[in-house]
Design a protein that fits this description.
Blueprint: H1 7-16, H2 24-33, E1 42-49, E2 61-65, E3 76-79, H3 83-91, E4 95-97, H4 99-106, E5 114-117, H5 122-125, H6 129-132, H7 150-159, E6 161-165, E7 171-178, H8 183-199, E8 210-217, E9 223-224, H9 231-235
Parallel strand pairs: 3-4, 3-5
Antiparallel strand pairs: 1-7, 1-8, 2-6, 8-9
Helix pairs in contact: 2-8, 3-7
Length: 236
Amino acid sequence: MSKKHSKRYNKAAEIVGSGKSFSLVEAISTVKKLPAPKFVPTVTLSFRLGVDPRKSDQMVRGSVSLPHGTGKNVRVVVFAQGAAAEAAVAAGAEHVGYEDLIKKVQEGFVDFDSAIATPDAMAEVRKIARVLGPRGLMPNPKTGTVTDDVAKAVKEVKAGRIDYKLDKNGNISGAIGKADFDEKQLEDNARAFVESVVRAKPASAKGNYVQAVTLAASMLPGLPLEAATYATKASA
């Protein structure tokens, strides 16, 4: 049974058209002209990659600091104690703790967007991997969320650093801002994300690495980007 869309969505789909690809600049300009829902939509960039997510040597993950942030108030928890915990509080983390915070998460607390931990806290944090992992919240050295400099990590996350990871279908997606950002801000953020994903290409990946990229805003149809937006960078 096909899903029925709202009149607003269908109108937006008519503007986007079918079978058309957009340059990044065209896609951003078009997204900002679409009939939006009653809230300010989040703009996301989604990648389909030519890697096998079942192979550990083809896992793609990383982080990127967006030049203009995401427009979202990022809620951060930090697993640390002592001086590191004090530094995390001073940097603006919403929740800071160690065994008490781990117990709170075990009891169901997941009301946060990013988790950071000091290396010495990870032995205990691994006890809640089953809670954090499926939500993409498990601290990881590769994304800079396992670090002794928790204050720097908190500031970077809150300033607009996004972490990304390949899903089981070989896709990556992330927010690059809000629909009320100006076009140059969205373009700068999008290019930073594209370049980061391209740099994260596994050495074992063969063939066409970035197969497709789509720009979309919440509750609106996606706009496929022209291969030139990413193909030349991907082969570099």
